Amino acid sequence: MRNLMRYVGALAIVAGASIIADVFSRMTGTSRLTSIFLSSVLLAAFYLGTGPGYLAAIGALLTHLYLVDPPYKFSLGSVDEMNALLLFLAASVLTNLLAGRVREERRQSRARAEMNAALLEAARELSATADEGFIRERLAERLERLAGGPAVVREAAATDAEIGEGWRFRALVAGGATFGVAGWRSPKGHALEREAQAALELLTDTGAAAIARARLDAAKAEAEARARTEDLRNALLSSVSHDLRTPLATILGSATTLKRFSDTFDAETRRDLATTIEEEASRLDAFVSNLLQMTRLQAGVSPLNRIAFGAPEAVRTTVERRTRGRPDSCQVRVEPGLPEAMGDPALFEQALGNVVDNALRYASCGGPVEVAVGRRGGRLVVAVNDRGPGVAEGDLERIFERFFRAAGSERMSGTGLGLAISRGLMEGMDGTVTARPRDGGGLSVELVLPAATA
Amino acid sequence: MSEPAIIMLVDDEPQIARWLNPALRAAGYQVDHAETGTAALARLADSRCDLVLLDLGLPDMDGKDLIPRIREWSETPIIVISARDQEAEKVAALDLGADDFVNKPVGVDELLARIRAALRNRARRVAQQPAFRSADLEVNFAARRVSVEGVEIKLTPREYDLLRVLARQAGMVLTHAQIIGAVWGSDANVEAQHVRVLMAQLRNKLEADPSNPRLLLTETGVGYRLKSDDDA
What is the ipTM of this complex? Predict the structure, then answer.
């Protein structure tokens, strides 16, 4: 259809040139009209291609013969006219050839530029992702577009049924590994058949390289994840072994000492050793329940028993239990007329207990820890305030990460699990726990729970 | 013992001191408690101390670093308290000059036995005793004679060297490296495997049941120890 249009166009150009030539000869009386016809042939050849160019040449020649000497009559005319005619023919053939070649080259270079752009874009797209499935999908699409026909990308070798007439296949090979095969229907009749073939192969190789890189990335990510898990496991192991061992060592030592020297010791020493055993056993118990709770949180099976409960009672119980033997180390202040809190009281006590433990452990040097129970909007707020060394601004969120130990706390016993568990528990109850510097020095950790709707 | 031996406890965990203090005192020792390595060094420099009980986890320094500092000028026995699974730490501490280790957690009887062995060992070293005697085993260093339950046993020179090294510090653990240094010489190209082979030979000659040794004890991952009568 387009071709037909081009030929029609060529005839139209010649027709236009004939009219111009006719008008020109009538006005001037000259019969030297060769240049006008030659121009039309050139125009047609250049813009419409070789075929239309030749058509234009024939058309122009015939019109020329018709128009000149004698006008409006087909005749070869004089010898001079014959010479001019031969020149006309030679010139139109040459023009045609030249213009055709220029046109063809322009077409080719445009096709080449398009191909290069497509390759570049494909390379960019394929290397921008680490998703192998996506790479394969996009590669097939790109091959299809470039080949101007169907294309496939297979993980395994192509089946015989696919290897049909005109199909070409290329293995997806990169770095010595094979990732399958790509195939396309040969772009027969393509402007640049050989170059297109090469481009398709190049595209296939680009795809293979992208797949290789994606696999490498995936392997690296997996190795990193493994290393991180390993780090976590090691940190857990060392902290668990320390936090389990110290109370165990104390219990075993105290118990064997009591057994061995019970006759020698006075009552006070015996009582002190028994107290030590009791304290360390409850420390061990708290630690073990933290570990269990963490495992539950991780497995996502922590059973939530959400009921309305009195926050002040829960706070007092927790503080009492955590400060056993040191009742002066922590003070509780309660705002009057508080609504009940909504949540699991046992989990809340554990979450609060970890925070209180931390305050007592890291900040008891700066004076007693103060726990304030109050309300803010429809929520209950339990603030644990200490006058300890505080936490660096950048670490305020990180102290709730597992195994994070604030600067300066390396030698303190502790797992770096307590606050992480507190956060997990609070969030499981639609509550929050956050830390901020306390006015006048120290740290303030706030546990917030929704109030029960009365 | 005319006056009680003084034991310096270097440990920062208050709850450990809470039972060790009364236990050691009840066992007849005087206790000096240092919570940091620096305090321990200062205290050791200007007061008498017969034995150091050192926890490797200290707030101000690695307990291992303390050992060579003490060894620069003092031969005071050092017993290291360390976790059961930290063999490498124990070996390092022993090679740095610690005399023995106890695993945490430890019962008081085992700890006291180790302390007695270490104190007696020091007395033995000072007195240059000519022989080692325990209930079953006798090693006469002067005559290079070994007997088990009164029956003389013939040993190869290497086997005797191994036994002598262990008997010289009976009750104390010796690392593979220490044994190799004492038996083969410190520049010998010998591996722990050789020690195991030699130990197997020695056990075959001395132990009633070599696969279940009662005299030549293995400290897994660390080294060997010759049982002394102090051991509980």
Answer: 0.74
